Amino acid sequence: MLKLVFMSLLIMVSVMLTSCGSVQTTAESILSKPVNIVFSTNPNPPTVGYIESIIFFNDSTGKPITDATVDVSADHTHMSEMGMNGIATEQEDGKYSLRANFSMSGDWKLNIFINKEGWDYMQEINLDVQ
Known about the structure:
single chain, alpha+beta, Immunoglobulin-like, 2 domains, 7-stranded antiparallel beta sheet, 1 helix, globular
């Protein structure tokens, strides 16, 4: 009986330590995020038709990310055949812009891919087109 209690206690401690380890990893991942993205649209809020997606990129120290390749793709979450993609052009000081046709209202999922000098970063953004 004592052996059974000891084994149960050992398993419970192992599970607790594993859970704590995964929380630590998640916290470190969030804190060490290499890119900060601020996304906006013109018009705001976005409406059906051509809109300008404006994307600002800064590294973890706040320095603008320049001279990067920025690829944007978008999919309508309820209509799988609706989508678009394109390369955003650099404007100034970490600001990139892409004009795209959002042909239907509703929820869109944007994937922003940044490539610069051998590193890649991707962030997903939800967009409600009215």
